[in-house]
Amino acid sequence: MPIYEYRCNQCKKEFGHLFLNLKEIKQVRCKFCNSNNLTKLLSSFRVHQTEESRLSEFNTSKPRGEDFYKDSRNIGLWAKKRVKELGVDLGPKLDEIVEKGRTGKILDEYNK
Ligand SMILES: [Zn+2]
Questions:
Q1: How far apart are CA 112 and CA 95, in angstroms?
Q2: pLDDT band at 62, cuts 50/70/90?
């Protein structure tokens, strides 16, 4: 679902509009004055990153902040990235290990 932002040339206000279907785009009007004299702005809308793009942006040589591991999706990312860099292919086994790490189950196994 695209979100577009517009500036109204009539009242100079800016607003964003979420389009549920693409036909609406041609019919969009200013939310404030109902003018159709609009300039489309660059959207600030960002799609959620896929794991692939997180991996490619992720730099293992940079120190990670405290916030990094508050995002549980980042746990295991480091390991995956390192493994990829080293050219080791652990296949599904790695996913299994990472998944255990994410869910905390890996600790249970170490404590046995
Ligand atoms: Zn307006």
A1: 22
A2: low
